[in-house]
Amino acid sequence: MNLLVDIGNSRLKWATSGPGGLAAGSALANSTLTEESLADVWGGIPPPERLAISCVSARRLAGITRSVAGRLWPGITIIEAKSEAEAFGVRNAYLQPEKLGVDRWLALLAARRHYALPVCIVDCGTAITVDLIDERGQHLGGMICPGLELMKKSLSAGTEALVYEASAFAVGPANHTGAAIYSGVLSAAAGLIEHVFSAQPEHCQLLLTGGDARLIAGQLGCACRIDADLVFRGLSLLVE
User: Fold this and answer.
1) pLDDT tens-digit map of 51-98
2) Which pTM value belongs to this model?
3) 109 and 217 co-located in one domain
């Protein structure tokens, strides 16, 4: 059994992988993560052979992860994923390949292994990222914009009258500010995805992942697939 850890901008997500496939555990908020809280969560799982880490957040959190793993399972093999120019049949489009977010790189690797290409990959997390990969495994580049929560919070931070609300509302023209913001940011995200995807070849697949994937998918006017474990699938390639 292997342990896979995806440290995003807001949460630490983890899963185990083995002959039975992937089994995701409960995510932990980065803001409250400590060695003690992580050790409590992992203390009851069987000892893994290897730990693979993807981290786009503070390096401190990767350090906590390594420290807890070493304490619970002395001698465990630890692999920290890094973006590369080429791996597993995927070629990175970035001028500086190491600058591509490692979660985006792992999603590309997983799409190459598990889906028919070409694919448009959208990670609907703290940031919304769009990456394109053609039928030869060539990454064609990507786009980044704020995620739903960041869009709402930026309006609150940048204006006097627009107050942040966490509530959900019906999507459409609204008769109060909270609902208008909710509809606006969700429609903006859907519009970006549809705009990019409409320019792709007819046989291209649209693949969504990330915490807001299901919410955004409900607003799209095009077919898509949701794979919540895409980054984990990329990490699992590193420990095979």
Assistant:
1) 999 999 989 999 999 999 999 999 999 999 999 999 999 999 999 999
2) 0.95
3) yes
DSSP characters for 143-181? EEEE-HHHHHHHHHHH-SS---------SSS-SSHHHHH
With beta carbons less than 8 A apart as the criterion, state whether 171 and 180 touch: no
Report the number of secondary-structure helices (H) and strands (E) in the chain.
7, 13
Q: Report the 10 Å Cβ neighbour count for 161.
A: 7
**In sequence order, which residues have a C-beta less than 8 Å from that of residue 44 and are 6 or more positions away?**
none
Q: Catalogue the active-site residues.
A: 103
Q: What is the dihedral of CA 52, 57, 59, 65, to 10 degrees?
A: -40
The whole-angstrom separation of Cα 153 and Cα 164 is 6
Q: Which amino acid is at 94?
A: Y
End-to-end CA distance of the chain: 10
The residues, ordered by sequence, that sit 6+ positions from 135 with a Cβ below 8 Å of its Cβ are 117, 118
CATH number of the CATH domain containing 14:
3.30.420.40
Domain boundaries, position 32: 2-80
